[in-house]
Amino acid sequence: MTEAFVRELPDLLNRLFEIVDCLERFVPQRKFTPDGHLVGSIGDAVAAYAYGLALLSQSGAIHDASAASGQLVQVKLTGRDRNVQLTHPYEHLIVLRLTGRREFREVYNGPGAPPWALVADQKPLGAQRPISLTVLQRLQNSTPADLRIPQIRSFPVWKCSEPAGSETL
Question: Which domains, ranges and CATH numbers included, belong to the chain?
Answer without folding.
Answer: 3-145 (3.40.210)
